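TL;DR need structure tokens for one chain.
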Amino acid sequence: MLSITPIRAFSDNYIWCLADKESGKALIVDPGQAAPVAEFLEEQGLTLDTILVTHHHPDHTGGISELQQHFQPERIIAPADSPYTGGTSTVHAGDEVVWQSLTFEVLATPGHTLDHVTYFSADKVEGHPVLFCGDTLFACGCGRLFEGTAGQMVESLAGLRSLPDDTLVYCAHEYTLANLRFARDWLPDDPALASFEAHCQDLRDQDKPTVPVLLGDEKQRNPFLRWDDPALIRAARSYGEKHEMITDSDSGVFAAVRHGKDHF
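>> reply
TL;DR here they are.
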């Protein structure tokens, strides 16, 4: 029986634990802090045997060394050609990572960083395919372009957008309400955004996570996945005219949205 649980870290990070209760083994994704992971594993009686890394930022890798010393996991899998060099093995786009009954495909998703990868499994956990996407995709948002270009991020997000609608998106931050405030400012007449915001506010009022989310829903409401949506294009063109941005391409529309969010 496989399950996925968020482990909270810092102020708004989620470290994901994929657990096999039958074997007692655990896979951890992006452990930026060691202490909350260690506490969770010990409380649940789990053995850490694999760590997946999506990209090199310290809030995703900072706890790995301590966890390695304490738990001695068999594998630390990280992207190739990355500033993070602490992995026991590296992966490229198209590689596969097998863990228990699951096979993850490694997808290259540069944009937020150049080394960013995501891990997708069509094998279902709790009834859904699984996407561990780090900081590439958020609920109603996406990662800032710290290293990559708008064109790279559109290509990365287009790859994620092509995945099955019933995929559960396990992103690494609790940014949903802030993302929704921006999305509703740009698309004030979108009823799906208003309904989702009310739902997420209710979850946060109960101190519950707003993620994971269904990818099919994100395709409909996330402005960063809607560069070809007429309503979003109109908003981007209006914004682009005010800021002297060219919005006559998918990457131009996306760049306007990203610029808008960065200065919101």
